[in-house]
Structures are given as C-alpha cells and as structure tokens.
Amino acid sequence: MSLQQTIERDYKQAFKANDRAVVSALRMLKSAIKNREIDVGRELTDEETVEVVSRETKRRREAVTQYQAGGRADLAAHEQTDINVYGRYRPAQLSETELLAIIKETVAAVGATSPSDLGKLMGAVMAKVKGRADGTAVRAAVRRALGA
User: I need a labelling partner for 79 at 20 to 30 A (CA). Which of 21, 25, 109, 141 fits?
Assistant: First the structure.
C-alpha cells in the first residue's frame, strides 16, 4: 500500500470516527499532496510524498513558533496537533548519535576540513538523511563537526 493510500485510509477512518482534528490535518495534507501532483504533472512517489509531509511539518513548526511568540496558545496547539498527525507518515527520525555518525562518514568522504566547506558538506549530508532529520539540527551538527 502506498503512502498516499495509507493517508486516504486514515482520513476515512478519522472521518467515520468523527475525529475533527485528524480529519482537518489530513485534509490539509491531502491538499498539499494534490497541489504538488499538479505542479509535477503526475502522481507522486512515496519518497516525494514524504518530502511533502516533511515540508508541511516544517511549516507547522514555524507557525507554532510564531503563534507562541504572539501569545496565541490556542492556535499553536492546533498546529501542534497537525504536526503529531503528520508524524505518522514520516520515516523514523535519526538519533543524535546516528546523525553524528553520518556526518563523520560524510566529512571523510567529501574531504571537508574547514567552515568554508559547510555548503558542500550540508548538501552531501542532507542527501543521505533525506526526510529522517530536520535541516536545522543537521546544520547545527555539521557546524560543530567543522568547528564553526
């Protein structure tokens, strides 16, 4: 079963159970997936669908930060609910130890030695951890590895 089929199945189950929060979150996710399919002109692969889920999760995290800064805990809680729902469809996130191991391996492969190699190293690491680690966390770990 593809990821999109799983999302559709879960949407139907939440709809039948009258779980408004999950229905709302999945409706937004399905819309984002459909918009991406229209952009590329074909059905998305599971990997591309995971990218859409990751992008939407990142948007929700940014919204939570903004709402909390603005004193809107109610809206921040709604966005956090969406993040929790989307988490079901993302691959398991790498632990700090696993991330550091990938970074060390990539530093050796790329030959990065100084902070000026940050961009080259980030590109290589992000390709390896695609969808399994947050870009902000990866950037911080890469900076520490390069001594920046």
Answer: 141
Q: Please give the Cα distance from 88 to 50 (Å, whole number).
A: 11
Does domain 96-146 sit in CATH 1.10.10.10? no
Q: What is the DSSP string of 127-140?
A: HHHTTTS-HHHHHH
Whether the per-residue pLDDT at 146 is higher than 80: the answer is no
Summarised one tens digit per residue, pLDDT across range 66-104 is 999 999 999 999 999 999 999 999 888 888 888 888 888
pTM of the model: 0.78
Tokens of 116: 């000026």
Pick 3-89's CATH classification: 1.20.120.450, 1.10.1510.10, 3.10.20.30, 1.10.3720.10: 1.10.1510.10
